[in-house]
Structures are given as structure tokens and as C-alpha cells.
């Protein structure tokens, strides 16, 4: 019954899930979630989250590219595994990012004003914008794939939307690594 409902309402559910996900991120950014509501991790772990997230992002780039390659070769099972791995990596990234944001707060850019204005800020804005656009698209392709047999997926927008979602996801993950390098390595 629930599967039939989901199957019939994929676009609406993707939109609702996307909005809820973005609302959770905005709530964390705006400080709505108190740090006291979360368990306290050791300082070394909280400090390691940005580096861990950069590694997760690099791994996610590899799994997206692998998924793209495998579907072009017709290997649906490997494509599915790669894209599910990417989704799990993204969930881990987001969970760690939000945890650190709530318990530690944002990290101020340590560089000078010109680099902040003309490099860091545009990269950050594009990274965040692509991530927000990508979320409902990813939900959409996951819901399509999860509610249909493989033979039926070819009759949906899964491939078309999936190509857009994967491309945006790749760029967002790559720009996230640039943000990390600017915040924690170069400056």
C-alpha cells in the first residue's frame, strides 16, 4: 500500500522531502537546534569533521563517476550500488556537518577581504545553492528507482533527471572541497 502511494506521488514526495531536508539544514544554521540537545563528542572528533567531510566528498565524487560509468556500460546493479553509496556518503557528510555546526558553530574565513569577497564567498554560495537544488532531484531519482522494476525505470525521467542531479552533485562536492581547502588548508 505505501509503496503504491509513493510510486504514484514521486514528484510531490521528492519536493516535500527536499523542503523538509533544506528546512532542517536552515534550522541548524540559524541556531534553532540547541547544542545541548546533541551528545557531546570529544574536541578532537569535532575538529576532525571538516577533514573527514572533505574525504567523504572526494569519495562521493568517485562513486558518482563510477555510477555514471557503470550505467553507460549497462551494468544497472553496479550503478545502483554506486549511487546508493553516494547517497549514504552524502547522508554521513550532512549528519557530520550539521552536528559540527550545532555544537561548534560556523567557521569564520581567515583570509583577507578580497579573497573572501571574490573567491571564497562565490564558491560557498554556488556550493550551497547546487546542494539545495540537488536534494529534491536526488530524492526524485531515488524514489523512481526504489518504486519500479528496472525495466520500468527506462520509461520514466530517471535517466534525464539523474544526469542533472549527478552533474550538480559532482560540482557541489568538488566546490565543498574547495571551501574546505580555503578555510582549513590555504588560510
What's the topology here?
Blueprint: H1 2-8, H2 10-29, H3 43-72, H4 76-104, H5 113-146, H6 150-153, H7 158-186
Please explain how this structure is put together:
With 187 residues, the protein is mainly α. It has one domain. Helices cover 82% and strands 0% of the residues. It is globular, with a radius of gyration of 18 Å. The chain starts with a helix and ends with a helix. The model has no long low-confidence stretch (mean pLDDT 94). InterPro entries: DUF420. It holds the Pfam family DUF420. The chain crosses the membrane at residues 12-33, 45-68, 80-99, 119-143, 164-186. This is DUF420 domain-containing protein.
| N-to-C CA distance | 54 Å
- Per the principal axes of the C-alpha atoms, what is the gross shape? globular
Mean pLDDT: 94
Return the structural class. Answer: mainly alpha
Number of helices: 7
Stretches with pLDDT under 50, minimum 5 residues? none
Whole-number count of domains? 1
Helix and strand string, N-terminal first?
HHHHHHH
β content, as a range? under 5%
Helix amount, in percent?
over 70%
Q: Give the biggest sheet.
A: none
| Gyration radius from CA atoms, angstroms | 18 Å
DSSP E strands, number: 0
Pfam families: DUF420
Keywords: Membrane, Transmembrane, Transmembrane helix
Transmembrane segments: 12-33, 45-68, 80-99, 119-143, 164-186
Protein name: DUF420 domain-containing protein
Amino acid at each position: 500500500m505505501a509503496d503504491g502511494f509513493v510510486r504514484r506521488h514521486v514528484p510531490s514526495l521528492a519536493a516535500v522531502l527536499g523542503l523538509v531536508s533544506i528546512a532542517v539544514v536552515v534550522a541548524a544554521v540559524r541556531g534553532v537546534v540547541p547544542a545541548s540537545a546533541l551528545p557531546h563528542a570529544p574536541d578532537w572528533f569535532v575538529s576532525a569533521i571538516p577533514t573527514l567531510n572533505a574525504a567523504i566528498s572526494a569519495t562521493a565524487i568517485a562513486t558518482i563517476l563510477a555510477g555514471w560509468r557503470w550505467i553507460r556500460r549497462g551494468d544497472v546493479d553496479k550503478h545502483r550500488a554506486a549511487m546508493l553509496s553516494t547517497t549514504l556518503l552524502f547522508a554521513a557528510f550532512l549528519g557530520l556537518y550539521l552536528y559540527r555546526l550545532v555544537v561548534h558553530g560556523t567557521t569564520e574565513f581567515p583570509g583577507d577581504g578580497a579573497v573572501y569577497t571574490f573567491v571564497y564567498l562565490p564558491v560557498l554560495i554556488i556550493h550551497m545553492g547546487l546542494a539545495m537544488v540537488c536534494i529534491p532531484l536526488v530524492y526524485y531519482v531515488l524514489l523512481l528507482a526504489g518504486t519500479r522494476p528496472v525495466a520500468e525505470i527506462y520509461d520514466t525521467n530517471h535517466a534525464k533527471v539523474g544526469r542533472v542531479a549527478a552533474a550538480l552533485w559532482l560540482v557541489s562536492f568538488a566546490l565543498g572541497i574547495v571551501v574546505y581547502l580555503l578555510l582549513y588548508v590555504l588560510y
